Predict the structure.
Amino acid sequence: MSMIRDLRAAVRPALRRVPSQGGAYDATRDPATNSAVVDCAVYRDGKRVGDHISPAEAMRRVRTEGGFAWIGLHEPAEHEFAGIAREFGLHPLAVEDAVHAHQRPKLERYDDTLFTVFKTIHYVEHAELTATSEVVETGEVMCFTGPDFIITVRHGGQGSLRALRHRLQDDPQLLAKGPSAVLHAIADQVVDGYIAVADAVQDDIDEVEIDVFSDPGKGSRRGGDAGRIYQLKREVLEFKRAVTPLIRPMQLLSERPMRLVDPDIQKYFRDVADHLARVHEQVVSFDDLLNSILQANLAQASVAQNEDMRKITSWAAIFAVPTMIAGIYGMNFDHMPELHWKYGYPAVMVVTVAICVTIHRGFKRNGWL
């Protein structure tokens, strides 16, 4: 049980992103070499041996001395990745996916290599949600997992694995489990990132919901803003595209015995799959809730327009009375009621006002004004 507790402590990253120095959202390429290889090391008995070695040297050491190699790359070009692909015997289809990115989350097996694609999600901080606000930003982490190596290929400016590598290096007992321990730690970090983003998106949805159903008399925008709701719905859809396709790969890693996955590590893919299922339920509920909020917003806008039209119609009916009377008395006829009576003018004005007041009270009583 102590090994289990150590495993969970090592692979469970913080829910919120860590600072950029070695954190989950820092820059990537080695500024000294401008190489796509961010880090490359050999791990033997859970300990790192050798620094600043090439992927070819790492594989040579693994074959002659044992252990496994962990090579991290960021947005490699095709020519940069070709040599590594030949050295480790990676399948051309998986290599093409890793270089060009924009893949759905998936798990594929090519001979003795597992190819896994994760979508990373980063919440974009914003002072106020607008119709053009970017709420979530996506990236990709692709893992080639073999018997004695793991190659991580990352696309996007966030989702760094540097802090994760340091945490794993502080636990030799865990790293001794091999490449599958690294694969689990990456999956766990990605899914925990989903949980953090889901909490932040929930706050944005709550803000929009409050705005839609708030009292217009208190200074808020009546009916909310359909543009903001629609933009948030699009961002939630992007989130959903990252979460939903990953459910099946996590089920396979947690339920189906695999030669490349240590049995002790496989048990903890179940924990990742459980957290992923919870996030998926949240994202689906976000989508449904935003549909309801959008419909409520449109209904409120329609009701507000009807109220405005009723008010306009009511005032038009009231003003039609003096307009009609003035129009009649504006005609040049000699024989008209009270035309030569000295009290004719005030009498007509009193009648006009009385009729207007009566109509106004009727509309007021019926809720039109």
About this structure: Residues 233 and 287 are 7 Å apart (CA to CA). Strands lie at 37-44, 47-49, 68-74, 106-110, 113-123, 136-145, 149-155. The longest helix spans residues 263-329. The longest strand covers residues 113-123.
